[in-house]
Amino acid sequence: MPSQPSKELETFDNPQPARDYSIRIRIPEFTCLCPKTGQPDFAELHLEYVPRHLCVELKALKMYVWSFRDEGAFHEAVTNRILEDLVAVTQPKFMRLTADFNVRGGIYTTVVAEHRDPEWQPPVPVTLP
Known about the structure:
Elements: E1 11-13, E2 23-33, E3 40-50, E4 54-56, H1 58-66, H2 75-90, E5 94-104, E6 107-116
Antiparallel strand pairs: 1-4, 2-3, 3-5, 5-6
């Protein structure tokens, strides 16, 4: 198989570091294993961030997300771990990861984890008439 899962995240230089802008990435096929039963858990991940100097490379992100497929993890733990790993390699001004897990036993779980650089001030939203 030419591609393999990997915990290695790659980055590239932000092409507009002087501008605050948002990057939104939807990852609809996240899977991990329930640590109690070993059964698969499925989720859609939504990553939003305001880059500083680095952006996450998408193929590396895909391989990274794939690496969780055979790991047991609670929803809260895996969401926070992914956020921490992404923050460590990109050092963004702001990053939010939302993990919408599919139903399990009649219960849906959504976990939202955020990172905010304490020195960063978000721009004031513009409201048009």
